[in-house]
Amino acid sequence: MIRSNNIFDRPLERLEFVGLEQPTHLTRSRLFGLMAEHGLVSQLVVDDYLKAYQIAEYSPGELQIQEVQGVVDVLMNELNGIDFGSENALEFIASVKSPEQQDLQFSRDSSVVESAPGEDEVWPIAHEDEYDLEESRVEPGPRPARRFKEVFFLLLWSVVMFGAGYWGPGLAQRVHHKIDYHFFGGSRNYSPERQLQIVRHRAGANPHTLSYWRDYENLARRMGRWEDFVIALRHQVHRDPNNAELLNRLAWSLCTTEAANVRDPIEALALAERAYRLDQAPGITDTLAEAAFQNGDVERAIALEEDAISRLRGDDEFYQTQLKKFRDGVKE
Fold first, then answer.
1. What is the pLDDT of residues 261-290, one digit of tens each?
2. Do the beta carbons of residue 136 and residue 128 sit within 8 Å?
3. Surface-to-core class of residue 21, CB atoms within 10 Å of its CB (0-12 exposed, 13-18 middle, 19+ buried)
4. For 299-326, how does the pLDDT look when each residue is reduced to its tens digit (9 = 90+)?
5. Angle formed by the axes of helices 226-239 and 65-80, to 10°?
6. Where are the domains of the chain?
C-alpha cells in the first residue's frame, strides 16, 4: 500500500535532470497539462498519472504500489523519449516561464518605447559630464567605403555571436568536463552524493549521449542507488532497444535487486526474452532462467540453465550454483 507520494515525484525529477524545475506559479496538473498540449506526452497518460496522484494525495483510501508504479513508469517512458531540443519542447519551455520572467525578458528585448498619441517622442539624453553641448560640432559623415566596412563587420560579429549562443554552451560544457576530468580529477573530488548529482544532471542535459548515461549507471551501481541505476539503464534501452547486453543488465537488475521499489520479475522476464531472441550467450541464457524461476516456471529455468552450462567455456561454478538453486526450488 502507498503511504507516501514520493513515487509521484519521479517525473518532476526527470524534468529537473534537464534543467526544468517546476515553476512556483504552476501546479503539477497545469505543468503536465502544458506538456500534453505541446504534444510532448500523451494526454491520456497525463490524465491517468494525475488521477492516481489526486487519489493518493486527497482521498482517505490507499492505492496498490503496482498500480501507481505502472502509471508512473508509462509517464517516465514518454518523458525519456522527449527531444528537448525540438521546436515543441522549446515552445513548452517558453510557456512555463513565470509572468515576472516574461516581463523581464520583454524589458530586455524592447529597445523602443512608443510615446502616447499627441506627445513628442522622448529620446535618452546624455549626462552633461559626458560631453560639452556648447563645444559640439557637426562631424562629416563617413565615406561610403568606411560605411561598407562597418556594416560588413557588424554582420560578421552578429553571425559569430549567434553561433556562440547556439553552440557555445554545449561546447563550453564539454570542454570544461574534459579539462576537469583529465587535469583535476573531475567529480572524484566531491562527496559521493555530489558526484551522483553532477553525473545525473550531465546525463539529463545530454539525453542522446549514452556515454554520460553509462557513467550515471556505473556510479549509481557502485553507490547502491538502485532506483537511479535502473533509470539510467531504462534510458539506454530506450535509446538502443536492440542492444542485448543492455536488455540483459536491466532484466537481471529487476529480478535480483533487493530494493523492493525497483524489483519487478514480470518486466524482467519480458526484457530477458527480448535479449535472448537477440543473443543466446550463456550469461543472457542464465538471466532468462533466473527470470523464469522468479515467475514460477521452474522446469524452464532448469532447462535453460543446463543449456547455458553446456555451451559455457571456462569456470561454471556460478552456473552450477544457479542450477542447484533451481532444482531445490528455493527463491533467494
1. 889 999 999 999 999 999 999 999 999 999
2. no
3. exposed
4. 999 999 999 999 988 788 999 999 999 9
5. 50
6. 6-97, 169-225, 241-328
